[in-house]
Every structure is written in C-alpha cells, then in structure tokens.
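Troubleshooting log. The previous run stalled partway through. Resubmitting the same two chains, unchanged.
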Amino acid sequence: MDHSDLLQGIRQAIIDGDEEAAKSRTEAALTASLEPMLALQEGVQGALNRVGEMFETGECYLPELMMAGDAARAAISVLMPHISAADQDAARRGKVVIGSISGDLHDIGKNIVSALLGAHGFAVVDLGTDVPAKNFVDAAQKHGADIIAVSTLLTTSRAFTRELVRLLNDTRVRERHFVIVGGGPVTPEWVKSIGADGYGRDANNAVALCSQLLSGRQRPPLEEPLCIGALQ
Amino acid sequence: MGKLEIIEILQRTRTGEYCTVRDWDIKRIPAVIRQKLKAHGLEKTCDPSNPVNSDDSLADAFYKAGYEVALELGMLCETTERIVRISEEELDAAVELAPSELLVGEGSDGTKIKARKPEDPYPMVFGASMAITFSEENWPLITEGIAREREVDILEGPSLVTVHGLEIPSGTPFETLAGYIHGRMNRQIRERVGRPGMGAIGCTSSVTEYGQLASYGVPGGFRPTDLSLVLFPSEMKVTHTVLHKVVHTLNMGGYVFAGSPSMIGGMSGPPEGSTLSAIACALLQYPVLQAHAGGGEIYDIRYLTNVNREGLWALSVTHQALSRNTHLLTHAIASEVSGPVTENLLLETLVGVATIAASGTAIAAGPRPAGGKLAEHLTPLECRFAAEVSHKASGLSRKRVNEIVKEVLPRFESRIKTPDVGKPFREACDLKTLQPTKEWENMYIKVKGEAIALGIPLDPG
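Second attempt completed without errors. Output:
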C-alpha cells in the first residue's frame, strides 16, 4: 500500500467517524513509515476540513461531525508521541474549554461550535451544559486551555458570564485564557461590558474567532473584544 | 389502561436504562431515525419546491414511523442519564386520554383551543409573543400593547431582563422574584386592558423551575386555567428541571403546555429525520410530561429559523401527521429572522403561520422578530398580523397555501442568513399611545393588502 492509500485510509476512517479504524489505520501507516507530520496534516486535517465542508453543505449532520472529531482525536493520540515537541507546537491550534453556563440546558449551539472547533484542529474539552463558572475556571487550569468558550441561550444564564470573568480576575488567572461568549442573548456590547475577549454570532464565526485570537501575539485580556458576525 | 402517573415517570428517570448524553445524541437518535426513514421509504421525500405538503399518505407514513421512533427511543433524562421508555399501551392511553378541547383563561375572555385537522376552518388559536427580552421600564408597555390587540387570543409576552434593576442569574432567588413579579404584572395587565379572563402562557422570564414555582397558581399570578410553559431543552430529552414544572403544574390543577425543538441538521439529521423526531417528541410529551397541549417545533440548525423551504416542509408534514392521526392539541411556532419595521418580518410571518394553520395545528405561538436574539425587537403590530393570519388562513387548502408560500418565499429567502433586524420597540412605536409609527403601519397595510390579494381573507380594516 503506498502512502497516498494510507492517507486516504486515515481520511476515510475519520470521515466515517470510525474511531477504531482511525486508530488502527494510523498505527498501520506509521508501521509503513509514513511521516507522522504528513499523516497529521494531510490525513487527519484533510479529513476534518472535508467533514466541515460537508456539514456546511448539508451532506452530513451534527452527529457525523461529532463522531469525526472523536475519530480524529483517536488518530492524533497515535501520532503525537512520534512528532517532535517543536512540530507538535506548530501543529497545535490551541485548546478550548467549552460549555453552556449555569442554568442553561440547551446544548445544540454549544455542540455545533464544539464539533466545528474539533473539525478545525482545536483540542476541545466539552464540559456539557449547566456548567458553573468555577468549573470553567478549574477545567481551564487543569487542561491548560488557551480559550474558555461559553454558550448561553438565556438572559438568566448570561448573567453568569460576568461572574466567570470576575472569577478569573479574582483568582489571578485571567491573563492565561481568552474568554469568548456566544448564544442568542449575547451581543458585542454585552461581551465588552463583562470584559470578555470575543464574540461570534454563529459556529463558523466562533471558529474564525478562536483562530484569530490564537494567531497573533496578543494575550488575554484584550482591551477591546474581537467580535465577528454581529447582527446589524 | 389508565393514564400513566407522574410518579412512575419520575421513578423511570432513576431506574431506566443508563445511557450517556453523548451516546444518546450521536449514536442512539441517529441510528433509530435512519433505520425508520429507510424502513418506511421516507428518505429524500422532502420537496423544497413545494414547501407545504398536501400528500396525506406521506403525512400518515411519517406519523407511523414517528410513533415507532417514540416507542423505540423514549426520552433520555439528561439529569440522571437514564432512558424513560414508554410502552405502546402507555403511549396509546396517554394520547387517547389527552384533551381534544381546552378553555384557556376564563369566561368570555377565555379562548377554546380545539383539535384541528388539515384545512380545518376552526381558527388556529394564537398566543403572542415569544420571550424577547425587555427592560423593566418597557416590559409593561409592550405587554400591554400586545394584550390590547384583540386578535391575540392568549398573552404570552416578553421576558424581563432585570428585577429591581438587577440581573436575574438563573437558579437564584432573583429568578424566583422575577417569576413572581412577571406573573403578577401579566395578570394585572390583562385586567387593565379589559380582558381579565384572557388566557396566558407563563412564565417566560424564567427557564428553570424557580420562576414557575413563583408565578404559576400563586395568588395574583398565572391561574391554573392559564398554560404552564414546560419545554424540553432539546429533542428526545427531558430533565428534572422540566419535570419539576410538570409536577408543580399538576399540583396546581393546571394545564401543561409542552414543546421541544427538533433541529434540521442536528441529531436527527435531514428534514425528514427532524420530522420524525418532532412527531416522536410531540407524542412523548403526553405520557412523559402529562401534557394537555404540546408541540412539534422544528428549526433549521443552519439559520435557526423554520421559514425556509426545508423548515416549512418539515413543519407542514409534522403537523399534518399529528392532526390527521390524533386529536391532540398540537402546538407550533413560526420563527422569523427579520425584525420590526421590515416587510420581510411580515412576509416571514405570513408563510410560517399560514403553513401551520393549513396543516391542522391547534395553537400557534409567536412572533419571534430578529430570531429573538435582540432585546426589545418586538412590537404589538406584528403580533396582530400573525394572529390575523392564524385565524384567517385556517380553512385554506394546503395546495393554495403552498402556492402562496411559493410566491412569497423568493422575496425574502436570500436574506435569511443576513436578515435586516429592523428597529427596536422604542423606535417602532409611540411609547405613550403604543401605536406603531407611520412607517411601520404603512408596511403592515401594504403587506396585508398583498396577503389579501394572494387569497388570505384578512379583514382589510
């Protein structure tokens, strides 16, 4: 089997959302001397890009997007020990801790953002719904998150986003994490008023936001939040 | 077989089969939906070129498949990660024993919701509005403006964003206080506009059980003859928060008004899958939530609306399936994306409300200007227009409504992703008289005239 077949095998396993196949085909590719970085960039990332496109065009749906993210993580876990620390840093797009904040049991929007971030190569730690501010902070510390992404569909839950930023300040870890907020009642004005770093109107905006936040030399907290896709 | 008691449902949330939320979402729901679509030959039956279905056999086939989905999946209790399964006998009994009529409110101000069939001339009841957030200063004004609209049958109304000037964090005593104030003011407003017996839906200022406990059935608040809003957080799932509301509503001798959102592109996949999920959710609301009225809401995950082609098609099939095969008091929402003082808001309302009215829905709620995303983007005028369409499009044939939809959709569908959010309440209305600005009123007159010309027998006024 030549290298293009091996790469195609990894890609297809991820597109199919097949964790076991993604893992075993990645192991087989390494045994066959495929360059780990090539497998990561053209195999795993290529597949994730394709799945992202398929979701956009309605060729696949949220479960497939989430399963592809799981399969990609399985492949990456095989590859990472074989990639130099320097290359790992270069390949790493950043780690995001995400959840719907206290009182909010809505998960659809959060799930889409989580899945799309995964599909774009971010390492995502999904805390679920109804997550207290303290749990966001604890999880961000534990996982070394670059970004804390908060979803809220309710004004009554939105209030806790202010508490989250306050808690990060009070525990003196605010400079370690960007804080981004999205969901129905969230506006750029709100994000600015609570001292968060970014807003995205939809899931694609959220992905672009995370990419932009981590692409430069800027460090949290930002003086002015970065807002993408606001309704006019 | 008698009705399943709520205590049995509560126990099943503790003893049912264990399943993680993730497995439920990405494995169980998609697998059962896919299998049923295939087994019943329903794959790729969505016809975006004809957004309003008029094929009875298709609607019936979806009902049969959706019924099977309800039995096979049941509901996952998200709080305990246990599956609440319902047997065929239990589901049949719950549906059979559900009311086919309900007087919401009291006396001559009350409104009778009746089970309808597709093309039924009995008017679809309309409750306004969705829970758009308002300041404490403007909330009483907009709520009164809506209550004054005589076409609006039931007062739902916007939600409060603060209480005594302070934020309302979910699950805190602030929310309990907000619920209490909301319930009392809603009741006082109905009395002030001379409609003391008008029915209401509450409580939109609180999503957790705290606002419900503080407002529903308490002295001066929502009465047990009002509808108690009990919504699933997402398709095929229930939570203890939701069940708290059910227990409280039943304790008060009130009416459980249930709903759940199925998402096109979400866990149930394509429009056909979301239709099955919506039918299954609507059926399961009767045994699991002991619903008196309940719905099958559908939104397209890409735009968070249902006034696009796929959304309208799915809504039409879901409600035709339910209304043709049961006597349930079904509920639907037409969810707009444009805002007040735009013609598109009225056009979106027109197609959405006419579609569900012709499909046999018993009660609609709305409108949701600007997708409900912007504070204070709501006026009484679009509530009036939606209620007028709700009443007058009832009785129209589905084929006729399909033609109307096909005529109107091209005027706004290119803007669904980038809607004009229009103007907020204070810029769209005179805050003293609560009347619309001339600009907004002229748009209403124009679109109303167009609707009449298209065949919706609205009163030209």
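Takeaways: Chain B touches chain A at residues 21-22, 25-27, 29-30, 78, 133, 159, 161, 167-171, 175, 178, 205-208, 233-234, 239, 241, 261, 263, 265-270, 273, 301-302, 370-375, 419, 421 (CB under 8 Å). Chain B has a mean pLDDT of 96.
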